[in-house]
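Q: What does the assembly look like in three dimensions?
Context provided by user:
Components: four
Sequences:
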Amino acid sequence: MTATVERVDSSGAASSVKTVASRVRDWAESDPQGTAMREKDFGIWQEYGWSKLWDEIVTAGHGLLALGVDVGDVVSIHSEDRPEWVILDLATVAIRGITTGLYPTNPMAEVKYLLNDSGARVHFAEDQEQVDKVLEAEPDAFPTVTSILFVEPRGLRSYGDDRLMFWDDFMEMGRDHRKANPGAVEALMAAAEPDDVITLVYTSGTTGPPKGAMLNNKNATFAIDKIVMAEGRTRDGKSPHPDDQVLTYLPLCHVAERIFSTWHMVGAGVTLNFAESIETVQVNLREIQPTLFFAVPRIWEKIHATILIKLNDASRIKRVFNGIGLKLAGFIAADRTANKGNFTWKSRLAYAIGNPLMFRALKERVGLRRCRWAGTGAAAIAPEVLQFFMGFGVPVYELYGMTENSAVATLNHHGRVKVGTVGEPYSDIGLRLDEESGEIQTKHDGVFAGYWRLPEKTAETMTDDGWLKTGDVGVWVEDTHIKIVDRIKHIIITSGGKNISPSEIENSLKTSPYIKEAMVIGEGRKYLTALIGIELDTVGMWALRQSIPYTTYRDLSEKPEVIQMVQRLVDETNAKFARVEQIKKFRMIPKELDHEDGELTATQKVKRGAMFEMFEDLVEDLYR
Amino acid sequence: MKVSRKLLVLLFVLGLIAAACGGDDTAETTTAAPSDDGGTTETTAAMDDGDTTETTAAPSDDGGEDMAPPVVDVGIDLDAGTIKIGMLSDLTGAFGPLVTPIVAGHEAYWASVNANGGINGLQVELVIRDTVYDVTNHVTLYEELKDQVVAIGHSTGSPHTLAINEDLQSDGILAIPLTWYSGWTDPDINANLLPHGTPYCIEAMNMIEYITDVAKETGIANPTLAIASFPGDYGLDSMAGAKLAAEALGIEIVHDGSGTIIPGQDQLPVADAITGSGADLVWITANATFFGEVYGGAIASGFEALWSGAGPNWSPALLDSPLADALQRDYYGTFYLSPWGSDSEGMQELMAIMGDAPPTDFYGEGFVEAKIMHEALLKAYELGDMTQAGVTAAAKSLEGIDFGGMAPSETYVGEPNDIVQRESMVFRPDAALRAAGGTGTLMIEAAYTSPTAASFVFEGACFEL
Amino acid sequence: MRGRPHLYVSYESEQSLLPTWTQRVMVGLLVFLLVLIPLQGGIEIGDRLYQPVGFLGDNAWLKILSRVAIFGIGALGLNILTGLAGQVSLGHAFFMGIGAYTAAVLGGEVGKAHWGLGLPIWIWLPAAGLVAALVGMLVAPTAVKVRGLYLAIVTLGLVFIGEHLFRNLTSITGGSQSGRKFPSLDFRLWKEEEPFLAFTSDGPMWPVFNWLDWLFGPWINFPAEMSEEAKTYLALAALLVVVVVLAKNLQRTRIGRAFMALRDRDIAAEVMGVPDAKTKFEAFALSSFYAGIAGALLVAFIGRAIPEQFNLLLSVQFVVIVLIGGAGTVAGTLMGSVFVFVFPRLVQDFSGWLTETVESGGVIGSIADVFVSTGLDDPGLVSTLEGVSPGLNVSQLNVVIYGLLIIGFLIFEPLGLYGIWLRVRNYWKGWPFSY
Amino acid sequence: MSLLILAQAAADSGVDKFVGAITNGLSLGAIYALLALGFVIIFKATQVISFAHGAVAALGAYLVAYFATVLNFPGGALGGPAWLQWTVSAVFAVLATAVVGLVLERVAIRPMIGEPIFSIAMVTIGLDIVIRTITNDFISTDPRPLGDPFGTNIWEAGPISMAYSEVATIIVTIVLVLAIAWFFRSRIGVAMRATAFDQEAAMAQGISVGRIFAIAWAIGAGLAAVAGIFSSVFPRASQGVSAETAFFAFRAFPAIILGGLDSVPGAVVGGFVIGLAESFAGKYMTWSGFGVGFSGIVPYLVMMLVLLVRPYGLFGTEEIRRV
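A: Here is the predicted structure of the complete assembly.
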């Protein structure tokens, strides 16, 4: 990877490789005025046209060249989702560099690890907060980093570090470079090879330090072909097209968001709309009314909870209507679940009543009114939540994949939905279940090129016959769909020898709007227990209405009334499971879990190991 | 709190809706009586057809038996047997206290007419609108009335009446002005008006001469005069008359306070000016409230003179006030009507129809206005044309309307100078009469016309508006 | 982007007067109705009379609506000062008077005792606004110095001083309680005798309707003639529409935003670079301009007015319009003026209905009788005999209800009619949630 | 300006005219002071300018007329000389008006606490409209004389000549001003001052702010009624209370602004200054160029001049403005 490729000066050489960057150029040629991205600035959604976007990408590419970025050099991006993220990402790919993204929540120690592990040359730190994570470390902590770009100059004016460079200056430099070396970026892009690594996606690292999965042009092309352009994915059967709107709000460094934002944009020409921040997603959703919407289960759970709470909070007359609407939605959901997500005449009739009554307004308010495809993945989701949305006419299609196979594994097609499964394998890909362990294994062009600088780890993830081991245990459902049991590592084997998948139980608990976190414990124990964290907003509101005074999260968690309520919720969940799978005892988690405190990964997954360490007393208490 | 607020707002809105519906109901339930749009469309249809007479159900009344039913348009419904007369009254404005009893006089008069069979069987209804003595309201309300009444029973205020005068003429609608402005004598102006009573300026001439005579009798050879008034047509018209009279009589006006009595202000400066002039005679044109203030202020500084004032100056309440004694000594009042309780035939009739109503001199004005309208309607019926224009024409041909001695009779045929009213009635305040439950006005001279007034030739208004 | 009412991709679209199609269609319909009102009864579709707003086509209602338009224009002016800039003023009547008498001098006929230049409307109407604005600027320095209730009373003093001036400048105003004739609402080209467009006389349809006739002729029969009331109404309504657009637009401009900043936090606004004195100055000038126009229109509409017309009561009426409607909002101000002028008519109709109910007897009649006094011996809250019988007469009742409404609105619905509208709208907008 | 008038007065005419201007000004000023005092007390406690003050004054005067001349209650029941009977009835009527003030506060003002001051002022305009209309309906066609015992009697001492009623006005005003001054030293008065200073702090100190509001309105209404009485007797308005009485209070606005909205001494001083200014203007500023009725607007002119120099009146406390 560090081998230098001779730079080709003539831009005439036609490239046979379509990279994510060259696709933007194609769009800029075929639809220069079309909208590629929108960013909300001072209350207005400012638009980036294709030609402007391409122009900026080229300029940024020149800027990178001016900074001395070579083929195969790494550019790291540490920022919230914003146009510059995409521009820099694509510019790096254009000059055959490698991008890697960092979660904005990554604390300093992780930043240090990631930058050094990837050996980034240029680091893009959004604002003062992210810049500080680099500059506050010891002077020579980042030996490879030669430039630090930033776009939010506020508070950075007095910083004297030589490596710092304001984005506008960087672009100016790019323009100068472009004037001096016209066509340099295009030439590099033309020379791209299918095996060029374009990005490092670091695994979240629930166990051990993060590993950088290398994805190359071939992987990207495959993913765009399979996922983005998948046949029969949407409600109306049409593949994504330039009229589609996508709300970009999950971290772009995650492979899922990269696929559902950047790759959708370059692949199908959909418009990216950058949410202002995670807090404003609900508002931005209402404004954008995206046609394609991907969210992780946590978000769906949150929307679900908000809807339930708000419906319950409505004025009396509205509550009557809402009650009717919920009944209808429940019926529709049950009916559609039983029919692979299709309507029968009965559910269609119910929908015809419910839609003007409440569904349409509800979807409008939530921002899903125009949604023709909604997806979920990256973690397990409770079927109740999926059914809830299906009842209102927003079928959420669960799909499955992982960074290492460019997220190409299975998906639920419109009209062939099985709730509770992650769907069918994509056509013409290699996917099998390991006969012994039930582990899902894939083999196709999307399978990654390996872990960055970790050949032995790469080898560990591959079977001897070259299949990728996903680490997830699955079972076939009716020979067509796959149901994920759990991560192999998470499967609990009780002292009684029963194999139990905790995720299902946890997800069932998390369907309640009041429960944010649940961790089921029982490895080598006699019975199952759980650590449960409440959702501060909803429980706080509930407490307010019950006139229960509270001060802090911990105080609220430990209120007897709250514990009683949680007990009821646990009982409800227990009713759904077999005896051995029932939770005998639980304890409240006394704090809100946090990425920075190390209890969660950047993708908000609970780090089980860390949890056991941190809440050892509680766990021991459960088995006393 | 929040709920109750919402509830109140809701109730309020419901109330509004109810009110709105109520309004519609009126129009519907009384479709028989032409009101609002129903009436308009009907009548336009009638007009289009030419001189269609609605021959259905001619009222069988002894007076109307041998007469064919008249032609009608707006405001008269022969089927329902009703005549609607509009009233542009100031009920809550500056002259509200004055006009209210006038309207009451009207109502009582028509109630009695209706009780006695109405106008050839047609019952008279008054459509009363409050103008609040505001020209804009006046104009707007006229617009409302003109499509539902046959004539305007009275129109309060000179500028107000002038504001609708052009419309009256173009619409051919008759109105009785409730003001005694001298400008109404002009035939160009009064084409659709029935002025009545003695104009302000004639009234002033009469009284100036009267009190000059009184002063001379008491031994003041060359009495001096101080005058003060409201601004506006009423005050200034009267002041013009006073000045004409003073000139004719050769008496000096030592203080000219024309238009200085401004409502809402302190009147002591006016009183001071009068006092300071040392006049022997004072002529005030205001209303009882402000006359009281000026007069009280003047006598407080020991001023003594012969005081007199125009009709609206007087209120019986002045005799209940501390000024009673001084007023009995100083004041000569005038009006063109005989006061409440006088023994003329007309007044007796009025007192009979007013029943227990608290006494005031202004019922008489209502009575007179109503009587004129009554005559006009009868005449129009007789002529067979009770359209708005027909009533106007009929009214303009009236002669010698008799008020049973309560007011001088009115004629609308002839030269302006011949038909204008020049008589005044002179009275003095009398506490004893007041104590007996009357209005405390003792008539000392009925139908008085001064030589100045008698020989005055109108060539237009005394005071040009 | 269609179907995304909250998605603004440019400031123009976010700040546009009618951002969504629903609003555009609603406003279009409203304007259409406004035009139809005076034509009703005359318009036939097929063989059926089309009566979209029924009774409103009456001449009497047209007069009321014309007044609504005039007062709406004036109230929009006060709304700028009080609603947007937060400067409480009881002096609106004074500025209306200034406008009225400017119009009188410029457009009025020369009388024996009155000045008048007989100039056409397109001179006197703008001039009325300009002169009033000028006087507003003269007054502003005093008004800038004082705030809050002090300002209210200073402006109240202005009305009294104005009344004094109007009373005494007889050659301009015609004098107290007398008044003078004012120019009529005719559109003339220079001093021609024949008006180009006569708003104040009956006559043929305007050319614009001929055009409509040509377009819709086969389906709709437009009347050949139009009454003066209808013409006056249409002229005033058109002017109101223009003024509404201007007023609405003002809120989007720098000046408009400066006004609101001043209103919300005056010192903060100053710190942010909104000059206190200059902004108030502009607010007074703008508001007076509107008042002057409204004053000129009012007197031209009536044809005659007395100086006492421009009194405190008139000012209060404007404040009531603004507050009942909902301060700071154009729609609210319009609702306020409709309410203030239409309401008395409704009360009148209601009491008429009440009286008839009493007379007709029956259960409802006898219930109503408790409240209604029909004679001297009959106690009740409301009397049918004017004046002498116990109880308030209809006019007094009207005034009392008017007063109670002011109180009620301020206590229970401080945002005024607009607040009610907002509440209703939000109720539906929030569906199926409450927030 | 006043100096000029004085100089002119001395040179110009007799002492009588000058003394007349002073006595007239004092008695007029006393009525203004009474009205202003009511305004200020209400304003101090509740931060409200009551535009209904005039209507309440008229109502009070009407109640006096009704109690004293129609019912003769309760004075008639007590017997004794006529003046005593009247006084008892009048006091009773004033108390009745105070109760009305109490009710107004409870019904219309209390719910408005916390609303913008101008909204509350508008509520009082609404109250004015309602009370005035109803009072006028009671007054009916003719003015209502109060039946007061002052008659047209004049008290003379040297160049001074004043009606008994004017003397009474001044005496009653002085007594009431002293009483108010004493009241502000009493427990409730101190509580009221505390409330005026800071409502929340007062509440925290255990002061029932609602009660203070009610008391202030009751006192204000009572003072208005007293002013109503003296503005409806000889020589100012011998014919009694009429529809005009309610408008009298508007003339006291310049007085309160001049003195400062929240200053009790300011109200008294403002009242007398305005009264004297108006009286002197009426007597001396008679040049026709000023126009008819110029004295009526002199108070407003004086007020505006003072405000140009002192935007919070002569004695008013400057509002401390914060962002």
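Follow-up: The first helix of chain B runs from residue 2 to 29.
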